[in-house]
Specification:
The structure is a single chain. The protein is of the alpha/beta class and 312 residues long. It has a domain at 4-170 and 207-236 and 280-287: NAD(P)-binding Rossmann-like Domain (Rossmann fold, 3-Layer(aba) Sandwich). The protein is 36% helix and 20% strand. It has 11 helices and 14 strands. The strands form 4 sheets. The protein has a 7-stranded parallel sheet, sandwiched between helices. The radius of gyration is 19 Å and the shape is globular. It starts with a strand and ends in a 9-residue tail after the last helix.
Length: 312
């Protein structure tokens, strides 16, 4: 029997890659999304009989409950993602990122499987060389990370759950996000040719958006072996500092210039090295490198420019 997957926020940056992949794998997929950004990022799968879409708000129980009742697997992607938007709209962040997810968990049956993205930004800021495994203490700094930590605790109370602590995601998507760090630096390299760095030695881990989609299918395929666990999801060869990231971009755009700011601090104080060995031990292999993503983004930005408030 074909399994039915409910993806909340399925028209977003992750979902607009993941949903077509799930459909191609033969699943039935229902997307619940508010289409907050006016996107039509799933237009290319509307011809698929296994795809259905509902415009609605994940915070409204009467909307969510009947959709949950039909689902074998639930992938809650709906969120205000990232520290800046959560700081700007703390009420929206609380109700979407926390309250709506608690409500969703409350309406799950014990048999339903739930696979959820959390964040490795929960490791917070550490000393130089701070090495994090899934057992490392959590030190979330931002409202976004704090809510994700609380949600992960609730998630792991469910008997059929997997938490994927995602590294900073990069790569092209039909619902593009230019604000993610690799995406942002590459955009600046393509269009501005320079960037000013704050605390350029701070390190973090990265993962391509298509490998995020792949890891969810890996989790579904290996669910009995992986359930009840938390997994870091990143590229093991991409624990790099902001300066090292710029050097990687510069390999592809030689006239890209980056300089260290003489004063000031980055409001995002993340600084850590992340181990992905636990996930890799389950047989998952990342297939999209940091250099691949930069090359992909350069092609994408040839077509895309954020000119909403510009004259050229």
């Amino acid at each position: 029997m074909t399994k039915h997957i409910l993806v909340t926020g399925g028209a977003g940056y992750l979902g607009s890659i993941m949903v077509p992949d799930l459909l191609e794998a033969g699943y039935k997929v229902t997307v619940l999304d508010s289409f907050l950004y006016g996107q039509n990022s799933l237009a290319h799968v509307c011809n698929n009989d296994n795809f259905s879409v509902v415009r609605g708000d994940v915070r409204i129980e009467s909307v969510v409950k009947p959709l949950l009742a039909k689902a074998d697997i639930v992938i809650p992607l709906a969120a205000l993602v990232g520290a800046p938007i959560c700081s700007r709209d703390p009420v929206g962040a609380q109700t979407v990122n926390h309250d709506s997810v608690i409500m969703l968990f409350k309406n799950l049956s014990k048999e339903q499987q739930v696979l959820m993205p959390t964040t490795n930004s929960a490791y917070g800021s550490g000393e130089e060389g701070n090495y994090c495994t899934e057992e490392s203490p959590l030190n979330p700094i931002s409202k976004y990370a704090i809510d994700k930590v609380e949600i992960e605790k609730e998630l792991m109370q469910h008997p059929n759950a997997i938490s994927f602590r995602l590294a900073t995601v990069f790569g092209m998507s039909p619902r593009m996000r230019i604000d993610l760090l690799v995406n942002d630096f590459t955009y600046r390299a393509v269009h501005d040719r320079f960037v000013v760095l704050f605390e350029s030695s701070f390190k973090r881990n990265y993962i391509h958006v298509r490998d995020v989609s792949r890891v969810f299918q890996h989790g579904i395929a290996n669910f009995e072996k992986m359930k009840g666990q938390v997994y870091n999801v990143g590229l093991s060869d991409a624990n790099v500092s902001k300066k090292e990231l710029c050097e990687r971009v510069q390999k592809h755009i030689p006239d890209f210039v980056f300089i260290d700011a003489p004063v000031g601090k980055d409001p995002d104080q993340r600084n850590y090295i992340v181990s992905n060995e636990k996930l890799e031990s389950t047989g998952f292999k990342q297939t999209h490198s940091l250099d691949f993503g930069i090359q992909e983004l350069i092609k994408g930005y040839t077509m895309l420019r954020n000119t909403k408030y510009g004259n050229v």
